[in-house]
Amino acid sequence: VAWAILIYSLAFGIVSTYWLFLRTTPIQFIDVVQVSWRPIVGCAVMFAGLRFLLAALGPFDGFVSGVIGLGIGCAGGALIYLVTVFALWTLARRPEGAEATLLRRVVTRF
Predict the structure, then answer these.
(1) What is the sign, positive or negative, of the torsion defined by CA atoms of 60, 64, 67, 72?
(2) Cα–Cα distances in Å, from 33 out to 3, 15, 29, 37, 70?
(3) What is the dihedral of CA 3, 9, 15, 17, to 10 degrees?
(4) For 37-93, how does the pLDDT look when each residue is reduced to its tens digit (9 = 90+)?
(5) CB of 42 within 8 A of CB of 85?
(6) Do 76 and 53 contact (CB within 8 A), yes or no?
(7) pLDDT of residue 91
(8) Which of 21, 43, 89, 106 could form an S-S bond across to 99 if both were Cys, CB 3.0 to 4.6 Å?
């Protein structure tokens, strides 16, 4: 039952939400793609990188090794995602957006 709800929600909930959003606002689909492609690619690269990293480290049997694996996965995922998104942002000639705002805040703070 849970899988059916998930599939239904993904198939109809997201599609109908975007359909309503794009029809009732001046925002077009290309506008959404232009600002979201870097995070989407970053998520895909993070997924692949963590699959490879955690498989290379072997199974995490037991509580302590599971906690260590969780820590490695969280830190590794954050690092892979950040490096990927900022590399794509740099390759895209640093357009104004969330990355530029974050970088300005970090630079002014430190």
Answers:
(1) negative
(2) 28, 15, 6, 6, 32
(3) -160
(4) 999 999 999 999 999 999 999 899 999 999 999 999 999 999 999 999 999 999 999
(5) yes
(6) yes
(7) 96
(8) 89
CA distance 34 to 40: 11
Tokens of 16: 């109908």
Residues in Cβ contact with 73 at an 8 Å cutoff, skipping those fewer than 6 apart:
50, 53, 54
Asked whether residue 21 carries a pLDDT value surpassing 90, the answer given is no
Q: Is the pLDDT of residue 16 over 90?
A: no
Residue 93 identity: R
What does the block give as tokens for 81? 């995602």
